[in-house]
Amino acid sequence: MAWSYHHSRTNMDKVYVLGGTGNVGTHVVQQLLAKNIPTTIYVRSASKAAKLFGAHQQLTTVEGPSFGEDDDFDTFKQSIQGHTRLFLLVAGMKDFVDVKVRLATIAFDSGIKQMVDISSQYVSTGWRTNTVGDMQRSCEEAVLQLARSYKQQRYVVTLRPSGFFTNHLWLDLPTIQHNHTIQAAIDPDERMPLISVRDVAAAATAVLADPVEKHEFAVYELTSAMLSANERAQILSRVLQRSITFQQIPIVDYYRYMVDSLHLPHLIAYGLASDTHGGQGYVTSGLPILLGRDPETLEEWLESVKDQFTPK
Predict the structure, then answer these.
(1) pLDDT > 90 fraction of the chain, expressed in percent and rounded
(2) Residue 230 lies in a domain
(3) Is the pTM of this model over 0.85?
């Protein structure tokens, strides 16, 4: 597939973004452009990217296929030449580890000096405790070993976010809209780790804007709040100005809701349904250092998206 550049020439580090139209990636691109950092995004749809970001002097859009077959990587391999930083966010389950390692290999071979990799706080819960954590740990270990195998300077900075505030917009949205409830199998007062995708993006952007040597092989766990289901329901009630309650349901019913209504694959639905003990279990105290400000609260985030919870 053809690709083209349309950005201004500059001596600044050029950042390449993979996963730039998703929840986190969109904010990364916006924040990089706000800092006037030359940014290239690899997308499957250039028209979708244009709607998200419009025209910007420092933005380059590369349209290419999904990654899988050998030739799917050609566009990426050609277009990443000349960049020094990479933001990497890979979603999905199929060939997850192989795809991520192959992308990292192409990037480091092309001259990328720093890769900011979005992993998961599930890696911190222990050896093979769940599928997501196992996949991400395998990726972390493989990419770290790869980076250290180069004689030239190659760094990987790993971000491990916890549950996103945006999960409310797909995991809880149907029951909030139709039943004025949030539902799960967890104990009502069991606190779970959460963070805003804007803060995850801000942490990534800060690393990408800093000197490469500052962060080296850093690992940053990202949790801004520990909130129970009852506390989330109270915050939702305040922001939406109607009563939202938490309903604890049997774990099998919650699993079936995610599989039948949300169409999640078994391994993801099983992991979410059975995650009832808070994972990492603490707020990341160093977040204000990374962000240069206090992290966004759930209430602040909900205020910015509350119209999306209007009953249909």
Answers:
(1) 79
(2) yes
(3) yes
